[in-house]
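F-box domain-containing protein
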Amino acid sequence: RSLQYIIEKKDANFQCRLVYVHDTDTDAATLDAIVRSCPRLEHIYLDSPEAGILEKLRSVKLRRMKLYKFSSYELVGLMEHIGKSLYHLTVIKGYGPLEIDRLVRSCPNLIDLDFYMMDSLTFTGDNSFTNLQGLEILSSPIQKPSLRRFICHTTTLRRLAVDAVTFSDEDISSMVIEHDFYQLEDVWFTSAPYLSIASVEILMDRCPELQSVGQLSGWALTPDDVTLLRGILKSCNSSLVLSPASIFP
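Structure:
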């Protein structure tokens, strides 16, 4: 709002050196002022932007973007114009379905992608991000086939976090055997009721850079499994961290 005030009341040609802007309840006039007065803008966080205004960012070469309470349809439309310059995207509480495939086509250089509390996510394509290192999907419905396909086509991942998965041991085994996750360092499934010690072992075997696996209290592990894993880690002098620490002291 201060930028809007300066432009409207003080200096219509005002420009600043800001590279990051965080605005709440953004309206059209405010976003116009931000775009006009911040030629160096690289990172923006819009909390509850007014409907229909995201297109005003079409001329801005953003490297990072974070949105809260927004239209997924508007996001996809905007990415068709600015996606190539974007490296980090965090989206929270997007309204309406979001086709990840369309982000793949528009944002080929993404390094980090976070989905929180989205209405729904889908992925049906044969291509994914070629540089993506970090992926988080929390409280965002996505069907098992879509999630599996997305992960299998994104073998550059270093960090993978999904709060709830219905993968079986057979799913995990085929995923890491048929695809090379040679850079994967961290795997976090908060709730994975169908994954047993077999999935932990195959991840350890097939992912040479693996450093941490969790949240195993939400997996189908027995006390005997925990004891066995402790023994395996000690015998091979592994630095792998298994979470939570309460069951792996």
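The chain has two domains: 1-140, 158-242.
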